[in-house]
Each structure stands twice: as structure tokens, then as C-alpha cells.
Design a protein that fits this description.
Pfam families: DapB_C, DapB_N. The chain contains ten helices and twelve strands. It has 270 residues and is α/β, with parallel strands linked by helices. Bound molecules: 1,4-dihydronicotinamide adenine dinucleotide and ligand LZUJQKHR. The site of 1,4-dihydronicotinamide adenine dinucleotide has 25 residues, from helix 1.
């Protein structure tokens, strides 16, 4: 049992953090070697099992990332951009795998993660599910096959606690559509319609974000032309799909050496 790769979960009290703990425990392929939360969080110092409302687990929630990362093979991180940038630097120091699910990162944040990837094995993706990563491939193919007579719109829906928009997944899908068309997403992205916007610009890729209730995550890529429409859709109904992908990525990364990878690498979809 102790020979299994050790994974630490950071942001352990969060929606994804708790799902990751459950997924690691059920996997039979890894052991939970630590649990981290932000300094000042009321779970810090408590037994993780008890904090999650169950039996004692023997794992104490810590806020000392440097100490915990030194004893583990990988850290899985679904937290917030500023925290993720710090974890990347610590993972580089510890020479371990850093799986990043955090979305809403800026170009500057990503440049810092790139720098950390000289020493850490980083797997970062706005969506860790198999289904969405396949949808990304399909989106690129469909966009490449159609011309600008087809308007492309990415529509996403998430729960009312989500803090970033468009979602990381929507941006992955928009990027794939732009690549399929051979254009830069930056040049054609339309992200904030309100008021008298004028007619839609030919060639633009539009984004719409819906927030409500407990929606886990839904993404449509709409290709709309005169007389016909194609819709590519993914609907997540259980966060376990993201957690399973993240654990798979952590195990894939152990022993691989430094670099900045994504789920396409892990799933062999490149
Ligand atoms: N890539 C993917 O497949 C997925 C990505 N996400 C992304 O994961 C992130 C988290 O999502 P949720 O779990 O829903 O959010 P959440 O708000 O439920 O959890 C975030 C947790 O991170 C903790 N945290 C913040 N700063 C920290 C620090 N310095 N050290 C340790 N812990 C810290 C918070 O206290 C909180 O418990 C978001 O960016 C979301 O978009 C969510 C689902 C799937
Ligand atoms: O915040 C979430 O919940 C999710 N975030 C990711 C994103 O921004 O795309 C992935 C998933 O859709 C759930």
C-alpha cells in the first residue's frame, strides 16, 4: 500500500478538493499523502476524515505546503490562480508532479507556471474530463471543415458559485475552433455583448456564460449558418469525471521528468 504514488490534494475543503480525496481513496492506484488548505481556513489542524463529516482518517489538514509537498510524488490543485502560481513554484522546488485544474489564470500566471515547468512535471487543463477533451478535437475538425458562412458561438453554463467567465473549457473550445479556422482567437473573440452592439461580425467566435443553481458544467459549440445549425455538446453531471482525469494525470506524470503538459498528452489524443 505504501509503495503506491503519494498524492497531496490542495484546496481540500473545496467542491473539487473533496471529490479528489474520494477519487484517490477509491482508485486503488494512489495513496492520499497530504491535505492542504489556505492559512486561516477552519479545517487546518483538523483530521481530514472528521472535517469531511466521516470517520477519523489519520490525515491532518495542513497549511504548510512546503513541508507536505516534500513528502509526496504529486499535488493536485483545483484552487485559485494566485495560489496555483505559488504551488507551481513549490512543486518545482520539490521536483514533483503538479496537476493544475484551476481556471481563470492570466497570461502572466501561465508564464510563471511555464517557468516552474523547468523543474516540475506540470499537467494543466481547463477541463480534465475525457469527454471534453474529445469535444475539443471534434470542434477543431468541424471548424476546419466549415467556412465563415458558419458563425461559431461557445455557450457554457455553470453553478452560481463559479467566479471566472468564460469557463476554462469554453476558452479551450474557442481556441480549438480558432485553430481549425487558422485564425488567432485573440483577433476574433467576442466576449461581452450588451446594448446596441451592431450586427455580428463575420468570422467572430462568440462566448456566452450562464450561471445558476448547481449546474456542474455544460458546454455547447454552435455552428450556425443560413438554413442549418450544428451543435456539439458536452454535459457534466458529476464532478467525478474531472477528479478521475486529474488522478490519471498525476499517475501519468510520476517519473516522467519536467515539462508543461496538458490532458491531450495524458489521454494520447495529440
Ligand atoms: N480543470 C477542470 O477539469 C476543472 C476545473 N475547475 C476549477 O477548479 C477551481 C476550483 O473549483 P471549485 O472546487 O469548484 O472551487 P471551491 O471554491 O469549492 O474550492 C477552492 C478551494 O481552494 C482553496 N484555496 C484557495 N487558496 C488556497 C491556498 N493558497 N492554499 C490552499 N487552498 C486554497 C479554497 O479555500 C477552497 O477550499 C476553479 O478554478 C474551477 O474553475 C473545477 C472543476 C473542473
Ligand atoms: O468551476 C467549475 O465548476 C468548472 N470549471 C472548469 C471550467 O472553467 O471550465 C471545468 C468545469 O466546467 C467545471
Amino acid at each position: 500500500m505504501t509503495d503506491l504514488p503519494g498524492i497531496v490534494v490542495t484546496g481540500v475543503s473545496g467542491r473539487m478538493g473533496q471529490m479528489l480525496v474520494k477519487t484517490i481513496r477509491e482508485s486503488g492506484r494512489a495513496r492520499l499523502c497530504g491535505a492542504l488548505e489556505r492559512p486561516g481556513h477552519d479545517w487546518v489542524g483538523q483530521d481530514l476524515g472528521r472535517a469531511m463529516g466521516g470517520a477519523e482518517s489519520g490525515v491532518i489538514v495542513s497549511d504548510d505546503a512546503l513541508e507536505v509537498l516534500a513528502t509526496c510524488d504529486a499535488v493536485i490543485d483545483f484552487t485559485a490562480p494566485a495560489a496555483t502560481v505559488e504551488f507551481a513554484a513549490l512543486a518545482a522546488q520539490a521536483r514533483i508532479v503538479h496537476v493544475i485544474g484551476t481556471t481563470g489564470m492570466t497570461e502572466e500566471d501561465i508564464a510563471k507556471v511555464d517557468a516552474a515547468a523547468h523543474h516540475a512535471t506540470i499537467v494543466r487543463a481547463g477541463n480534465m474530463s475525457l469527454g471534453v477533451n474529445l469535444l475539443v478535437q471534434l470542434t477543431r475538425k468541424v471548424a476546419a471543415a466549415l467556412d465563415e458562412d458558419f458563425d461559431i458561438e461557445v455557450i457554457e453554463a455553470h453553478h452560481n458559485q463559479k467566479v471566472d467567465a468564460p469557463s476554462g473549457t469554453a476558452l479551450m473550445l474557442g481556441q480549438a475552433a480558432a485553430e481549425g479556422r487558422g485564425v488567432s482567437l485573440e483577433d476574433v473573440s467576442d466576449r461581452g455583448r450588451d446594448g446596441i452592439t451592431g450586427a455580428r461580425k463575420r468570422g467572430d467566435i462568440g462566448f456566452t456564460a450562464i450561471r445558476g443553481g448547481d449546474i456542474v458544467g455544460e458546454h455547447d459549440v454552435l455552428f450556425a449558418a443560413a438554413g442549418e445549425r450544428i451543435v456539439l455538446r458536452h454535459m457534466a453531471t458529476d464532478r467525478a469525471i474531472f477528479a478521475r482525469g486529474a488522478v490519471k494525470a498525476a499517475l501519468w506524470g510520476v517519473g516522467r521528468g519536467p515539462g508543461h503538459f496538458d490532458m491531450m498528452d495524458v489521454l494520447g489524443l495529440k
